[in-house]
Amino acid sequence: MVGGNLPSGLGRLVRKALPGIASLYLFASPAAAEVMREVVELPSNCVDTLPPEIRGTLQPWQVYVRLEHCDRMKSLRNLSAILPPDQRPRFYEGVVPASRLPSNFGTDLPVLRVVFPERTFFNTGSAALRPEANQISRIITDLLRNTAPDVAMFVAGHADFRGESAANELLSERRATAVAQQIWAAGVSTFRIWRIGFGEDMPLYGGTSDYDLAMNRRVEFLFAAKPEAVAIWLADQQSEELCQSSDLDQLDACRQNLAFRQGYDAEVVNPAGPKLTGLQPVAAVPTARVRPTGQRASRLGLGQSKSKSVELVSQARAQVIPNNTRKIRIDPVNPDSKPVTVIL
């Protein structure tokens, strides 16, 4: 991608490019980060996402984000075709609106979420990579070698509710770190690869069947043009993807048991560049988990009478923790706080 802010004269080009791709596989620009949908069909030619008059020309990076988003999905789907059917990933996409991003971005940013089943990477209760994981790491590595060098990739680890909460949190972080480090070691050290663990706090499915638990013990890859987009989607919208179930009793029981920490740290596994300066350290996050309240509880279908009243300190959605490793703190608890620019 070409660096630089989006000049006002080019804003029309970006807006003109939006309907073309939105009609193919993205929703119109949302007011808030939207619930993701599974990708079923893709354009036959991703270049069709660009207005004809700018194809083959050099433009600011904002003009190309949807083209590159489309290319990533097509490349990953093609690369994953070599895997056995039960090891292939599922693809989801959403959009983070410009209003939730740093003002100099000037455009909505799509986020791609790629979900692999847990058994593809690890044995139950283990953070040691299975031999089959090598092939998937090569797939992700091949993608990164043929994509824009400034793409942000997050590896997110999740666990099911069995076992102690603290142990599940540590296991999810170790799993995400193991996958991220294997990809980095494969020769893509010029990319920033982030890892984050959510433990058992983000159950994708609300049931307790073997299938539901297996899907909840998952490894996800999230891609976007900027890390801020992934971080803000994780803070804004991830919780509304949870507890999926056709059984209303299971859905309600799962949502009633949701409780989040006030911060989950995404950390770069391959830090590079100068130290950050001029920023205040972020205080440690309490380990206690709290029930969603306010707008977040309402959006999850939780009445205030069912929600524990919790006094929460207002904080930004995505914060930088300035130390030798770059970190972004994800806050899924405070729904009304605003994002801040992440300085990398």
Strand order of the largest sheet: 1-2-3-6-4-5-7-9-8
User: Quick one: how many beta strands?
Assistant: 9
CATH topology: 60s Ribosomal Protein L30, Chain: A
Strand fraction equals 5-15%
Over all CA atoms, what is the radius of gyration?
A: 20 Å
| Sequence of secondary-structure elements | HEHEEHEHEHEHHEHEE
Description:
This protein is α+β, with helices and mostly antiparallel strands and 344 residues long. It has one domain: 2-Layer Sandwich (60s Ribosomal Protein L30, Chain: A), CATH 3.30.1330.60. It has eight helices and nine strands. The chain has a nine-stranded mixed β-sheet. Strand 4, helix 4 and strand 5 form a beta-alpha-beta unit. The longest helix has 21 residues.
Summarize the structure.
The protein is of the alpha+beta class and 344 residues long. It has helices spanning 11-25, 65-80, 133-145, 165-185, 210-216, 227-236, 248-256, 294-299; strands spanning 37-38, 90-96, 109-117, 152-157, 193-197, 218-224, 264-268, 318-321, 327-330.
Descriptors for this entry?
single chain, alpha+beta, 60s Ribosomal Protein L30, Chain: A, nine-stranded mixed sheet, 8 helices, disordered N terminus, disordered C terminus
Outline the fold blueprint:
Layout: H1 11-25, E1 37-38, H2 65-80, E2 90-96, E3 109-117, H3 133-145, E4 152-157, H4 165-185, E5 193-197, H5 210-216, E6 218-224, H6 227-236, H7 248-256, E7 264-268, H8 294-299, E8 318-321, E9 327-330
Helix pairs in contact: 2-3, 3-4
